[in-house]
Write a structure and sequence with these properties.
This protein is α+β, with helices and mostly antiparallel strands and about 110 residues long. The protein contains four helices and two strands, in the order E-E-H-H-H-H. The chain has one domain. A two-stranded antiparallel sheet has the order 1-2.
Amino acid sequence: MSKDKEEKLILCEKCSGKIASNDDLVTSIVPFTIVPYHERCFSREMKSLYSVFISWPINGIQGNVGTVLIVLIVVVSLFINDVSWYYSALLTLPILIRLSSWVIYERHLE
């Protein structure tokens, strides 16, 4: 681990095992909380009845592409006079969630 990264133990919500790399980390929202999972534990959770409470993965390609699209929508909506500023502010919520996932979990892993 590089000196720039702060050492932080990240445990899977399902199995309580240590998550050692970004490749194995999946973050998701479980009612109002961002939680980490191993990739295999997340897929098992999605097949269970508990999946009703779990959102899509925040990190990974789907999360990154979604964040880029929402940033573009927010920027465009700021230039449209008919769109109220509070709609644009509401659209920034997924961006803040993605940023929070990175700050809380992803930046501490390799």
